Amino acid sequence: MSRSPQTEAEQNIALLADDKFTEITRVPIWDPEQDDVLVCRQVRQETHDVKTFVFSGREPRAFRFYPGQYMTFELPVEGRVTRCYTISASAARPYRVEITVKRVPGGPGSNWLHDYMIPGKEITVSGPAGEFTTDATTEEKLLFLSAGSGITPMMSMTRTACDLSEPSDLHFIHAARMPSDIIFRDELALLSAQNPSLKLAFTCDTTLASHSWSGYTGRLSLPMLSLMSADFMDRKIFCCGPALFMDGVRNMLKQAGFNMEKYYEESFDFGAETAGTHEEPASVAPEISDQLFRVSFPKTGHVVECGPGMTILSAAREAGLMPVSSCQRGICGTCKSKLLSGRVDMQHGGGIRQREIDQGKILICCSSPLSDIEVEL
Ligand SMILES: Cc1cc2nc3c(=O)[nH]c(=O)nc-3n(C[C@H](O)[C@H](O)[C@H](O)COP(=O)(O)OP(=O)(O)OC[C@H]3O[C@@H](n4cnc5c(N)ncnc54)[C@H](O)[C@@H]3O)c2cc1C
């Protein structure tokens, strides 16, 4: 007869080895309607200005998300700011989520995370949410184009595909300032070595004599892209990076005559135009679309008329108010307010929970009145 397990490691191995295995996988699912606190478990320095933060629930939770989705973090800086971060981890490893954050000079959110988020610290979040996703084990040929911290959604998609089986036919191209700025460089090289269908190419704006560099040098261009991915015209393309990078990619692909219906991008910058990532909030129902409604803000006594399809955020601004807001797409939750009376048409993108809607909360950036309304700002 074998002796009983003594240490924690022995107990875990015993659990895995016997029929209790099913019990340890029956971890409750993270429910975005109920669960909203993550605990930091680990911080990893990826490059000189990029860190990965590993989180799990207070109690064990299994996170269900599509690779490429993000979570929205409420950060206790300057009162409270909300920032979205893509889950960089594999969706096939559901008990932890990871985000990989670049320190933006002067940026309140990223600097707070870098300076104050340490193991044991708790943070309020919502999500996962987002539409920018693909299954990299699909039959379709894929091309990922990323730059800087825009690598995170592609990394989650790649890690997930490698965990589940193997990417079917994936070209992954990443652009960085210098070799030392390439996030996940070693891991990607390893994944590529283990998965022959994952072809990898890096390009750097500049290199120093001290860097041993055998990759491409210079900004991504059409001739360079053709060398890195000869059949790029036949691929479905996913792109994420700074606005200038994505502008350049779009122009390059249009110049090559690429079918832009097979092009998807995610912008990390709410101020920038994006393609294929979100739909504009729908305007109000057509039968009442020519009506004007009174939008009242009782706290300040302001009243303004709201025209067809106009959001309450725009109405508030017209009234001279300056409510806090960020994404203007119903994603980040920054502008959450209480609807005191009346009805609205809210076309949000995951920035509010059903239980909050049930409590009469709305996101004013993506809500238009369907009657006269009163809003608490
Ligand atoms: C859907 C979504 C997913 C995101 N995922 C990630 C992620 O995985 N990793 C990550 O690091 N960031 C990610 N971001 C960006 C992140 O939400 C913050 O905008 C970023 O951390 C900067 O916040 P801040 O408060 O420090 O600076 P802010 O005050 O918000 O920004 C300061 C300035 O820096 C610019 N800027 C913002 N983000 C970046 C960036 N990443 N690189 C260069 N310049 C930037 C802004 O345009 C602004 O001009 C994501 C954003 C969105 C909308």
TrEMBL record:
Any one Gene Ontology molecular-function term assigned to this protein's record: metal ion binding
Annotated FAD-binding FR-type domain residues: 30-135
Needed co-factor(s): FAD
Keyword Disulfide bond annotated: no
Annotated ranges, domain 2Fe-2S ferredoxin-type: 293-377
Keyword Oxidoreductase: yes
Keyword entries, A-Z: 2Fe-2S, FAD, Flavoprotein, Iron, Iron-sulfur, Metal-binding, Oxidoreductase
Similarity comment text for this entry: In the N-terminal section; belongs to the FAD-binding oxidoreductase type 6 family.
Entry protein name: Ferredoxin
